[in-house]
Amino acid sequence: MMNLLRRLNISGIIAIILSAILLWQTMTTPEKLTSKDQDQPQRAALTVAVVRPVMTLIPLTLSANGSIAAWQEAFISSELGGIRLAEILAEVGDRVRKGQVLAVFDQERVAMDLANSEALLLEANAMLKEARENARRVRQIINEGALSQLQAGQYLTSEKTAEARMRSAKAQVEIQQQRMRHTQVRANDDGIIAKRAATLGKVTQDGEELFRLIRQERLEWRAEVIASEIPRLQIGAKVEVRVPDIGTTEGVVRMVGPGLDPESRFGIVYVDLPGAATKGFKPGMFAEGRVLFGQSSALTLPRTAITLRDGFSYAFKVIEGPGGMAHVEEIKLRLGRTEGDLIEVLEGIHPDAPLVLQGGAFLADGDLVSIVP
User: Fold this and answer.
1) What whole-number distance in Å separates Cα of residue 221 and Cα of residue 269?
2) Which residues of the chain are under the pLDDT cut of 70?
3) pTM exceeds 0.70
4) Which residue from 2, 89, 50 is spatially nearest to 369, judged by alpha carbons?
5) Terminal CA-to-CA distance of the chain, rounded, Å?
6) Best CA proximity match to 366, nearest among 319, 328, 314, 309
7) pLDDT digit string, tens, across residues 191-206
8) What is the CATH number of domain 40-71+218-373?
9) Domains of the chain: which residue ranges?
10) Superfamily of chain region 107-182
């Protein structure tokens, strides 16, 4: 029994000693690890290039949206009623010249009416000659008493009546000649065919539209501008107009609308677009543009140096330290105009501040960075 108790005491003493050793190791190990970590150098979060703000000339502009439209449209209508269209010579998109034949009406019926009118004119001329001869004879003998005053008056009246009939017949011939000319539908100006309503074989009505023409191939941009911006606009100001997937063209302010739209409260600015039709611009296209007022200098940064977070714009200022290491400081910016890849900075930075050129999305305030030339 005594031996058993001695063994138990010895076992307890050993267990206590082992527990103490384990506790000592646990308490001393973190201190050794921390000491090692402190001896290791800190690592940079990112390797960055540095850029400084530059002064740049940026255009003073007014941005607006609007639609492309024809400068003026010319309607080419039928001047003959009840005549069949016999030939169509122009299609939508064709470039035509003033006086060019676009369509032809059936001339057979008009030719018959013209021939009839010419025959009536010949008859009227013959009757006029006879009436004039009779009137001449009456005037020679009227004072001799061979004819009564009544008979003499009838011959003189017949002369005047024959003259009136001749004028009427001549007018009818001119009308039919004009109708013959109108059997050829001609362009009333240079331009591009924008619409064709003429159909082969159709019997048209007088005044019915056959073609619609974009006069002189001139297009314009009708920009919508708010009322407060209208006083800044001047006739002759240069404009850049862009249609997505089509391209950009230059124009000139031709006219500023005299009033505002009662519903939208926008004013319309009319901008001439010389040569736009040859660049693929079409009436009805939606376009965005900017009116140029001049230039002014501005402090700018490359677009890559600016980071967007939570709806605000930031840049990272580089504060250099020893050994080529540095840390960054996050700076909130207020931005202005853009010119290509440059953005105007209105507030937030000093003109000589070194800033991270790109990669700001991977940085946070206070991060260490290494700098490359």
Assistant:
1) 8
2) 1-42, 142-149, 322-324
3) no
4) 50
5) 85
6) 328
7) 999 999 999 999 989 8
8) 2.40.30.170
9) 40-71+218-373, 83-103+184-216, 107-182
10) Helix hairpin bin (1.10.287.470)
